[in-house]
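dumping these here so i dont lose them again. two proteins, back to back, each one seq then structure tokens. dont judge the mess
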Amino acid sequence: MLPWIRLDETTAPDGDVLRLFRRGEEFSIRLGDGNELMNSRLGGSEEALATLAIDALDDRTAPRILIGGLGMGFTLRAAQPILGSDACIDVAEIVPRLIDWARGPLAPVFGNSLDDARVTLLSRDVSEILREPGVPYDAVLLDVDNGPDGLTRPGNDRLYDAGGLARAWAALRPGGILAIWSAHPDRGFERRLADAGYDIRTEMVRARAGKRGPRHVIWIARRPS
């Protein structure tokens, strides 16, 4: 078996070290040398985050989408072919080096997805964007950390607490969708979504699209019209 080769590393805003590895045509982003955060062969659930959320929009005209977390681009690339030419897709990534990797060593994974005129790549914390007044979004897709059960950044908790859910609500148009990826179920978080006023649907999806393997959770939370 081919060995893993470390290509680069960077430090996240909270001080955690993220390392990029490659083995043949497979890529892995890890927290240090241990916990794997992303793998280029395991994007099925991140793709489902996009397809389920956009399907729930019911063919809106000129939709504005915010994706929190660039990762390896699975969510972005799944959204692009099912959104029309009039869509606007903002992608927020808090770790600048991940954007460099997307245009550099991870270019075989990303292809030309970042050259799409509909896409605006923002080197920012998605929670800051949600705090700002502006034109509301039709959908906010969050693939940040491990889901509500934060793993890499304690600061990510502010996306998933009552205040964060209220800010997402304010950033959505009536009938808009807040879609959230999580590695695990979280009944407490589902209660917070309900308490915040969202209509909720929970989907269990495979990490490998259409194959056996771990299941992840996608919450589709609609702000009522």
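---- next one ----
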Amino acid sequence: MTLAGGVAVLLSLIAIWAMAGGDRRVLSYYALLGGLHLAASGAFWVISMSGPADAVAYFRRSELSDDFGIGTQFILFLLHNLREWTGASFLDCFLFFQIPGLLGLMLLHKAARAMAEEGFGTRVLLLGLLLLLPGLHFWTASIGKDSLAMLAYGLLALGLARARFDWLMIGAGVLLYFLVRPHVGFVVLLAMVLAFLPIFGSSRPSAKLVGVGAGIAGAAILPLVIGFVGLEAAGIDEINAFVAERQGVNQAGSTSLDLAGQSPPMRVITFLYRPFFFDAPGPLGLIVSVENLALVVLTLILLANLRVLMRLLRLSEMLRFHAFFALIMTLMLSQTLANLGLAIRQKTMVLPAFILLLVAVVAVANRRQEDRLRDLAKQTGQSVPAE
């Protein structure tokens, strides 16, 4: 690590202090997140040094490419300029790229607190535990797109969670997603159209404005997205051929799965919940299985409170956005990915939406229980429990 790496670590510490906003409990929690994130970045760096990895390819290719672009070219552009300005080493670049991922996780925590209308307590305790999952740190702490994608979703989540939409955050989140993964940026705009226009529930005037703007932006970037993913002739046959091609491309590797031989529902289950102990490929697979167990529990909680969730979705365009994003991304990725390792990594984009939906449901359930306890206390003449 050179001086540039030390600067990256210092920037992480400054970000943690600034995001905590003077709250000591939040500062302690964000420091824990930051420590895990730095550890994950170091672990990813060690693994990258011992075998072929996307981070190594990005680093090598950045020496020869300084053109601005979208997707992979955007990562190369950032890397090239980072190395040009700071003389950053391979490890230093890891330390710089983990900063957006850490910021994204802290923004998600802030968004959940705003949604639950609670400073730092039981309604967001489960969120605090879920944000400690190793995968959320591991994949977003390395050179690549996942770190920036996490920051993009964090900006969107907090911008939408505020009483008055933060237009700057929302716009920055959409733009960053488009620069990193244009097709996912289009999914974000599509989810906004479905969620904010009064199609599936009530919408505020400001939300309708977001929906209209998202529709216009989506129509504008659609030709770019189609060209980016290679679907210039977007007929049924071409789409089927594209899906088959993507499954074939992702089939390589020891952790590949034959999605072509599975039914669509089974592909969704495979994407969300595998590996699951019995088919875990080695020690890392067991760690992922623990995370998938947490996702199973999360899913069961949402299903157990399905009526509450559906009511919230009708009332809140913000929650509808998270639900549509998670639904579209799950269906899209589960039908095109055949490599288990890649599926595990790509699932990182879907987890924040599921987690925020869980926080909203748990917050409502807790409030209902508190209301029942207060009513019972009043009826029995006991003191009313404190808020």
